[in-house]
From TrEMBL:
<comment type="similarity">
    <text>Belongs to the EMP24/GP25L family.</text>
</comment>
<dbReference type="InterPro" id="IPR015720">
    <property type="entry name" value="Emp24-like"/>
</dbReference>
<feature type="domain" description="GOLD">
    <location>
        <begin position="25"/>
        <end position="211"/>
    </location>
</feature>
<feature type="transmembrane region" description="Helical">
    <location>
        <begin position="186"/>
        <end position="206"/>
    </location>
</feature>
<keyword id="KW-1133">Transmembrane helix</keyword>
<dbReference type="GO" id="GO:0016020">
    <property type="term" value="C:membrane"/>
</dbReference>
<feature type="signal peptide">
    <location>
        <begin position="1"/>
        <end position="25"/>
    </location>
</feature>
<dbReference type="InterPro" id="IPR009038">
    <property type="entry name" value="GOLD_dom"/>
</dbReference>
<dbReference type="Pfam" id="PF01105">
    <property type="entry name" value="EMP24_GP25L"/>
</dbReference>
<keyword id="KW-0732">Signal</keyword>
<protein>
    <recommendedName>
        <fullName>GOLD domain-containing protein</fullName>
    </recommendedName>
</protein>
<keyword id="KW-0812">Transmembrane</keyword>
<keyword id="KW-0472">Membrane</keyword>
Amino acid sequence: MGNSRLTMRSALGLLFLLFVQISSALKFDLISGKGERCIRNFVLKDQLVVVTAIVSGDKGDGQMVNIHIKDALGNDHGRPRDVVGETRQAFTSPADTAFDVCFENLMVSRRGIANPHRSIELDVDIGADARDWSSIQAQEKLKPIETDLRRIEEMVGEIVNEMEYLRAREQKLRDTNESTNERVKWFAFGTMGMLVGLGVWQVVYLRAYFRSKHLI
C-alpha cells in the first residue's frame, strides 16, 4: 500500500512537471558605451526574487559593468557596480508590479581593445524557483520526492494566484470598458438631444423673426 501510494505521488509529480516551464539563463553580449540594456519581468506581491548574473572579463580591462534592479513603482532593489564573475541579488516584491534588471558597460579607459564588450549570463528566479530547496530538505528532513512535490505544489499555487490576478484584472478592465461605453452612449444621446433642441430653437426663432418682418 505504501509503495503504491509513493508511486502515485511520483506519477503525480511527473505529471505536474510536464506543465511547469523550465527556465534557462539568458545570455547576451553587452557592448561598451552603448547605454543600458534592460530585461523586464512581472512579479506578484510578496514573492521572492533572486537575480543571478555572471559577467565575463577581468577588473582593470578598461570596462566597468554596473547593474541596476528597479521596479515600476520606483523602488531600487540593488545597484551592484563594477561586476565581474557571479553576483546575486535577492528581494521580496512590495506589490504586483513589473521590475527591470538593467546592465550598462562603461568604458573607463581605452586600452586599444577592438570591439570591447562583456558577455552576460542572467538568471531570474521568482517564487518557488527562488527558494533554497536543498536547505529546506535538510532542515525539514524531507525525502527527495517529497521536496519535489512540495516545490511543485508551491509552483502550482503561484500559477493559480497569477491566473486569479489576471482574471481580476480582466474583470476590472471589462467593468471599465462597460462603464466607458455607458458614458459614451449617454453622451451621444445628450449630444443628439442638444442638436435636436438647437434645431427646434432655430426654427422657432426664424419663424418669429420672419413674422416680425411680416414675411409670413
